[in-house]
Write a structure and sequence with these properties.
This protein is an alpha+beta fold. It has one domain: BirA Bifunctional Protein, domain 2 (2-Layer Sandwich), CATH 3.30.930. It is 23% helix and 32% strand. The strands form 3 sheets. It has a 6-stranded antiparallel beta sheet with strand order 2-3-9-6-5-4. A 3-stranded mixed beta sheet has the order 1-7-8. Strand 7 and strand 8 form a beta hairpin. The longest helix is centred in the middle third of the chain and has 19 residues. The protein is elongated.
């Protein structure tokens, strides 16, 4: 599948979700396959653009008045990881021409990769979170009803990706590399890696 957003979102298809069960927050770790060809042969090799990769998808099903705050919360989850890794990043609010077909609002996280653009460095997307409003819910007939009301309303759906692992590895290697080729690791990874510095093998 291209993303776990579709099966996760459809868990509430053709249903009325009680208001006291919202927000509903779901996640899935899946292998993903995409036939992206890159731009005129650029970015088609290595870890920048992969045709097969594993990805953690975040999905939220919320009441209509919760979706704006939920988008900020979801984006904050990805931001927290970047902050703990000590990586420089920026948040972009996409214009309507750049948002996906189903999204009403999208926030992209871009991480600084100093080795890109022939060594001049550039920001590259590492996560994207979208608020789809009631668009998907209308199509899959997913609604909610408060206990004190008879009428129903469409839920709002949101989706986001956790950090792209390949690009995250690139960011750690490029930002942490020293002149001797060793790579300084962020403190949060020391216990997992068993060291604070990666040293290249000689010979």
């Amino acid at each position: 599948i291209p993303t776990a957003e579709v099966p996760l979102t459809n868990l509430v298809a053709d249903s009325i979700v009680p208001a006291d069960q919202l927000p509903m927050r779901l996640t899935a770790f899946t292998p993903c396959f995409r036939a992206e060809a890159g731009s005129a042969g650029r970015d088609t090799r290595g870890l920048i653009r992969q045709h097969q990769f594993s990805k953690v998808e975040l999905v939220s099903i919320v009441a209509p008045d919760q979706s704006e705050a939920e988008l900020e919360r979801m984006t904050g989850c990805a931001e927290t990881i970047l902050q703990k890794l000590g990586l420089a990043y920026r948040v972009l609010r996409l214009c309507s021409g750049d948002t996906g077909f189903s999204a009403r609002q999208t926030l992209d996280l871009e991480v600084w990769l100093p080795g890109q653009d022939d060594g001049r460095g550039m920001y590259r997307e590492i996560s994207s979170c979208s608020n789809c409003g009631p668009f998907q819910a209308r199509r899959m007939k997913a609604r909610t009803r408060a206990d004190d009301r008879q009428d129903t309303e469409f839920v709002h759906t949101l989706n986001g990706s956790a950090l792209a692992v390949g690009r995250c590895m690139i960011a750690l290697l490029e930002n942490g590399q020293r002149e001797d080729g060793s790579v300084v690791l962020p403190e949060v990874l020391h216990s997992y890696m068993g060291t604070d510095v990666l040293v290249p093998q000689k010979g």
